[in-house]
Amino acid sequence: MPDDGGFGVYVHWPFCKAKCPYCDFNSHVRHAPPDEARYLAAFRAEIAHMRALSGPQRAQTVFFGGGTPSLMAPATVGAILEAIDAAWPLTGDAEVTLEANPTSVEAERFFGYRAAGVNRVSLGVQALDDADLQGLGRMHSVAEALAAVAIARQAFARVSFDLIYARPRQTPQAWANELKRALAEGCEHLSLYQLTIEPGTPFERLYGAGKLLLPDDDLSRALWDVTQEVTAQAGLPAYEVSNHARPGAQARHNLVYWRYGAYAGIGAGAHGRLVVDGVRRATFTERSPEGWLQRVAAAGHGMVSDEALLPQEQADEMLLMGLRLAEGVDLARHARLGGRIAPGRMAALEADGLVVREADRLRATAAGFPVLNAVIAALAG
């Protein structure tokens, strides 16, 4: 594992066909299709600007997220990858992931994305129950999703898909059955997220009005336990709080985040962490797609924030990200970044069985993962 956590590039495509009622991501619906040529020119300009900041790097990973990047033409994706490769040459084994919705229209483009340079796809399946898909605002059926998974497995060597659990009226047995059906698809990676109520979403309004009933704490914990048991038995144990993979099939781009590497954030509303002249900087771009275009046209980039992080801020971020991983945090590197953990707090968490220290690594235990936010708050406080 490189001490610096690696270097990757995140590209944000901010458009969707429809806004899901649970989603608080920076995604937008427009009546007319966006001008891809105009956005491509802006992506190229911002990539060049970020390259000037970062200095020479080799990109180990690229991730096209959104929004729905599978709404982009494969030629646009290929042109963006060419610009990235010119700025930060891709390593020979670089992982290039594209998020996609499992509709038949988007699945028809999968072989085009592979030809453009994408070698991994992440599908937003979200549920294997047609009624729940409708409730989640998804535009595909279970049959369509599974057909898209089959096409993806033909087009790409590496396939992942997402599911949301702890849905209204969901029982542990029903979730276990759904999860086993998902695992039967033979994909190497699953991202499994508990449904949460995000501020400003339609689900928040429904929940506040008592029209959306979610599992209580005991049921949520039972659903969590089922998730860990079923995936582990199938050979896809959790390597991160919400992510499960076969050995060697972890999402390498996300590992750049969780191992506190550096990454360039390109596109509207993209976050980045760049090391500039030895100083780690947090970057953030304009969220509005049209506003981002205007900023890039005027300044060559869309950044609205570029902040040098203090040593303790870096150490806290590293702890926040790294403890999500089953492998935990390298305490020596945490100390080099300026981190300090009070021995008494660590000892108390160890005594409670929530964390364990092995050599110079600190990791959450099986008991600690379900209450990870509280564990991190205690360590970083």
What does this structure look like?
The protein is of the alpha/beta class and 381 residues long. The chain folds into two domains: 7-257, TIM Barrel, CATH 3.20.20.70; 326-380, no CATH class. Helices cover 40% and strands 23% of the residues. The protein is built from 15 helices and 15 strands. The protein has helices at residues 36-54, 74-87, 104-107, 110-116, 130-135, 142-155, 172-183, 202-208, 217-233, 252-258, 289-299, 311-322, 331-336, 343-351, 372-380; strands at residues 7-13, 59-66, 90-100, 120-126, 158-165, 189-194, 238-240, 243-245, 262-266, 271-276, 279-285, 303-308, 329-330, 355-358, 361-364. The chain has a nine-stranded mixed beta sheet, with helices on both faces. Strand 2 (59-66), helix 2 and strand 3 (90-100) form a beta-alpha-beta unit. Helix 1 runs parallel beside helix 2, helix 2 (74-87) packs parallel to helix 4 and helix 7 (172-183) packs parallel to helix 9 (217-233). The longest helix has 19 residues, at 36-54. 44% of the residues are buried.
What is the total tally of β strands?
Answer: 15
What is the beta-strand fraction?
Answer: 15-25%
* Helix-strand string: EHEHEHHEHHEHEHHEEHEEEHEHEHHEEH
Widest sheet: strand ordering? 7-8-6-5-4-3-2-1-9
CATH superfamily of the largest domain: Aldolase class I
Low-confidence blocks of residues: none
The biggest sheet, with number of strands, parallel, antiparallel or mixed sense and barrel status, is: 9 strands, mixed
In helices, the fraction of residues equals 40-55%
The computed structural class is alpha/beta
Q: Indicate the CATH class of the largest domain.
A: Alpha Beta
What is the CATH architecture annotation of the largest domain?
Alpha-Beta Barrel
